[in-house]
Amino acid sequence: MFKSLVTGGAGFIGSHIVDKLLFNGHKVICLDNEFADNDQFYWNQSAQNVKGDIRDSTLLNSLLEGVDYVFHCAAESRIGPAIENPLNTFDINIMGTANLLQCSREAGVKRLIFSSTSSAYGLNKVPNVESQPEDCLNPYSVSKVSAEKICTLYTQLYGLQTIIFRYFNVYGERAPKKGQYCPVIGIFLRQRAAGQSLTIVGDGKQRRDFVYVGDVANANFLAATTIIPNHMFGQVYNVGQGYNISINDIAKLISDDHIYIPSREGEAFENLADNTKLKTTFSWKPTITVQQWINNQS
Ligand SMILES: NC(=O)c1ccc[n+]([C@@H]2O[C@H](COP(=O)([O-])OP(=O)(O)OC[C@H]3O[C@@H](n4cnc5c(N)ncnc54)[C@H](O)[C@@H]3O)[C@@H](O)[C@H]2O)c1
Fold first, then answer.
1. Are residue 25 and residue 75 in the same domain, yes or no?
2. In angstroms, what is the span from residue 77 Cα to ligand 1's centroid?
3. Is there a catalytic annotation at residue 140?
4. What are the pLDDT digits (tens) for 257-288?
């Protein structure tokens, strides 16, 4: 049994990581300040639940005692709000991550897995490979790429084992459905349930790599538990399905009733993960496609 801290553990992805760790018999501390504009927070009552902020080092120092693994999901996690409030985004996503790394280092944490984003690739050609240069189109991706670099620095300079995961478009149970900035599948399902037309942004031809949240939680679990050579720490790994689909095709799977709304600034046209590195390093494989998952939703 090991002990973990999951930051942002009451949010969409973090709560699945908490559940996965508890299911496997491990001890979990869940830290979340309920900052996100989510419909709901998911506090698993079998975890030690703490409502607090990753920028509070006194709190972190007390929580990190005896912690083996840190799963760092807490963030301003949406592009739209980050464009509206860049300084707050930099403070949470960069300074918050730096604070967590420093406290983890001081506490002797074994490994830290950082939730970063495929939006680091911006307008790069697909498939997106980890060796591509970053192309940050908005404050959110700047903040995440900056935090990635701090993770790598903590590995190289201080020997803290970090793993940087660039998630593509994560979907599944508990995906936020509230507001215009929540992930697209959540918006479409909410609109269908309310009997409304689905609102497709732009011409709907933009293509996204959708990856299931349970598979993302599993990638985090494998990242903590797999023995890998030292030089594989401090590196970026794509967490995506390795297949992409247009938003028009996603909409068609959910409803025939669509309208088009203006496109948004700061978003890439297409993403597609080359997930070879993740698969070969951690023996990860996806278990479900987005089409199968949507077809199972009533
Ligand atoms: N959902 C996706 O498709 C996706 C894609 C790429 C990257 N990510 C990244 O994965 C992580 C999890 O994303 P998510 O979709 O679950 O988002 P989410 O907003 O549901 O979860 C983030 C959680 O962090 C908490 N939080 C925010 N600021 C905090 C702070 N200062 N201290 C403590 N808690 C704080 C929020 O209250 C929220 O519960 C984020 O870092 C996000 O940037 C998500």
1. yes
2. 5
3. yes
4. 999 999 887 778 899 999 999 999 999 999 99
